[in-house]
Amino acid sequence: xxxxxRRGAAVEEAGALTEAGVAVQNLxxxxxxxxxxxxxxxASGFTVDDVKVWRRFTLTPHQISKFTSMGPxxxxxxxxxxxxxxxxxx
Length: 90
Description:
The chain is an all-beta fold and 90 residues long. The chain is 0% helix and 52% strand.
């Protein structure tokens, strides 16, 4: 797959919450339908929010897409950003 993480994620405090931003670039000539997920953890590595919502997006040739997420609570200290192929096409 030609879709790659372009840069390291930016994580910063936004008031009492933490905000994260990620840029992804498609380095290929193909178009991809993908899904992404932000997962937040506290400083000890425990999951802050158990709700997992995969969001679908399309990445066209050489396109850069930016994604942001706000931590669900003041305890959110770090996040994991995951991209996958959709499990279904519906």
